[in-house]
Amino acid sequence: MIELACIFTTSGVILFYKAFSTLRYDLVDDLIKKNLINERFSEQSYLLDNYRVMWTRDQERNLVFMIAYSELLHLQSTDKFIKLLKAIYVEDYYNQIKIENHVIKEIPSFDKGFEQSVMKWQEYLKVERERQKSTMKSFEETKKGQELKKGASGVQKKKPGKVGTEKDEYTPSGNSALNNSVGSVGSYNSIDSADESKTDAKRNSIDSSEQSEIEKARLLLKQKFEKPKKEPTPVEKPVVEQKKQKDKAVGTAGKYSSQLAKQLDQSSNKQEEDINLEKQKYLGGENEKIKGFDDISSDEDEQEVEKRGFFSKIVSNFKQLTGTKILDAQDLQPILDKFKEQLMNKNVGEQIAQQLCDSIKKNLINTQAKALTLLNKTVKESLQDAISKILTPKRNIDIIAEAMRSREKGKPYIITFIGVNGVGKSTNLAKVAYLFKKEGFSVMFAACDNFRAGAVEQIKTHGRCLEIPVFDRGYKDEPADIAFQAIREAQAKKVDVLLIDTAGRMQDNEPLMKQLSTLVVQNNPDLIVFIGEALVGNDGTDQLMKFNKALIDLSPKDRIREIDAIILSKFDTVDDKVGAALSMTYNTGKPILFCGVGQKYTHLKKLNVRTVVHALLD
Ligand SMILES: Nc1nc2c(ncn2[C@@H]2O[C@H](COP(=O)(O)OP(=O)(O)O)[C@@H](O)[C@H]2O)c(=O)[nH]1
Ligand SMILES: [Mg+2]
Fold first, then answer.
1. What is the pLDDT of the chain when averaged over all its residues?
2. CATH number for the 2-136+172-269 domain, one of 3.30.450.60, 3.40.630.10, 3.40.50.2300, 3.40.50.410?
3. 117 falls in which pLDDT band (50, 70, 90)?
4. DSSP string, 383-419
5. Contact at 8 Å (CB) between 499 and 445?
6. Which UniProt keywords are listed (predicted)?
7. Domain boundaries 299-391, CATH class
């Protein structure tokens, strides 16, 4: 739903303000600071945390129209809504502003105009939906749908509805479209402005005498708003007689009608259409080949690696050592020093790089420099050996086997996902769910991130895409209590696997870490999975270590819980990814359960030794 709508002058006078929830930011202030002061008028939308802030200007009247809404809800055609807001305000309300001696004396209430904009917007969406239904392919008809039908098992059972295009969701339709509605008399009467030409025709057909009357009124108001000699800065607020403004325009949050609230909350209306869009985003990709992650790499791949950069360099360095000479420590040292340096350039921590070099050294001493094939093999095997030692720490975790054991005992297997904001906790939780479903387990989600606006809806979306039930208690209850109730529900419904989503938090925020530790201690999940981003390198290790320490420090001495495993997300977005992967495990002893290699549910892969060796030698 729309969280905020505001209309203000470029000199900072608020003409209308309506907030539908308690916002964590002063979005108006943020917009002014970030964009308007810097005269970034070309941009018309940006993201602040979860809020999509969208605005448009009426240059002629020095007005700014802005709306904000949760990005996660994917509201459609919000650019249309802002256009309507602007058109209605300019046509019917702007003229009612009373100004005397450069002081605003009276601001009209825009509540009705706002409701009218919402209504028009809804009508427009309805027409659009009908139009899409008649022109769009069903999901099954699309290429992805066909692939999915062939490849996926058990996820896409129900007959899907119609889909729209992702592009339609929240991208403003561009400058020209927005500008079209500036001061366009009567343009808001036309709902069908998907066909802009119709609107134009309407515009042109307006009676010219009426047009000139409006033009006159406009001119008059423009004069009224003519700036005083001293130019005010965009945020400088002129003196305003606040009383009327206060009563009528400002602070009306909470007073909107329930009918309006329903219209604003489109989440149920658009479920059908949107869920197919979401499915397109997350499902599919089963047959996709992801570089470095195929379990069996072909001989060709192997030869490619051997021919390329890093590996061939080391080997050719060894080759330069003369003939039948038996290699000793002295021969190897300069080459290994170089190798170490290159590993460190690939983001591998120094200690790890040293360990890898030591391992090669140990295996190469006393071999003959001449035997090149042997050299190739030895370097590679030494690396494999050393890397598998690092990647296979104390506890090797097989979640499928563990879940099976729980199922045999008649208990749900419970995993809690933790980590800082935006690392991919919810997305990877959904990927793990997909994996479990494919293996025939019944799954349930617990929506325990009830801190970030829209987080519950995000999990519900995944739930709908995967046909997995979601246990949620909205945004009020304590996460630990929600988890507790979810576990009871999972037990009662004999669900095999319960996946608990939690809110992101910074590792140094003690109250929030305490909250997390309470959730963990009270509910004792089978597995605590830390989600870290592959791209943050050393910071990821720091986050992981601090999360782990906080859990240990904040749990009671007789029930200490630690992080059990790591999922490294966004592996697909970095080149020197293996450095972070090795460091995290090396420094903490926690195994890497999976790597997230994209946004689809199938983009979850096991990090095997071969992948790392390839990446290091590439
Ligand atoms: N490229 C890529 N994007 C990812 C991956 N995992 C998550 N994301 C994206 O990262 C963003 C944040 O993910 P989300 O699950 O909401 O993070 P959370 O705040 O930790 O729950 C979303 O846009 C995801 O699609 C991944 O493995 N690769
Ligand atoms: Mg999340």
1. 74
2. 3.30.450.60
3. very high
4. HHHHHHHHHS-S----HHHHHHHHHHTT--EEEEEE-
5. yes
6. Endoplasmic reticulum, GTP-binding, Membrane, Nucleotide-binding, Receptor
7. mainly alpha
Range 399-606: architecture per CATH: 3-Layer(aba) Sandwich (3.40)
What does the domain layout of the chain look like in residue ranges? Answer: 2-136+172-269, 299-391, 399-606
What pLDDT band is residue 137 in, cutting at 50, 70 and 90?
A: low
Considering every ligand atom shown, identify the ligand nearest to the alpha carbon of residue 535 and give its number: 1
Q: Which atom of ligand 1 is nearest to the CA of 604?
A: 27
Does the beta carbon of 285 sit less than 6 angstroms from any atom of ligand 1?
A: no
- Which spans in 410-559 are helix H? 425-438, 455-466, 479-492, 510-523, 538-554
pLDDT tens digit string along 259-275? 444 444 444 555 666 77
Query: 538 with 579: CB under 8 angstroms?
Result: no
Minimum-distance ligand to the CA of 424? 1
Please state the rounded mean pLDDT for residues 411-430.
95
> How many whole angstroms from 426 Cα to the centroid of ligand 2?
4
Ligand 1 pocket test target in 599, 601, 604 with most atoms within 8 Å of CB: 599
Q: Which atom of ligand 1 is nearest to the CA of 452?
A: 19
pLDDT, tens digit, 9 for 90 and up, residues 529-585? 999 987 765 677 888 889 999 999 888 888 889 999 999 998 888 766 677 788 888
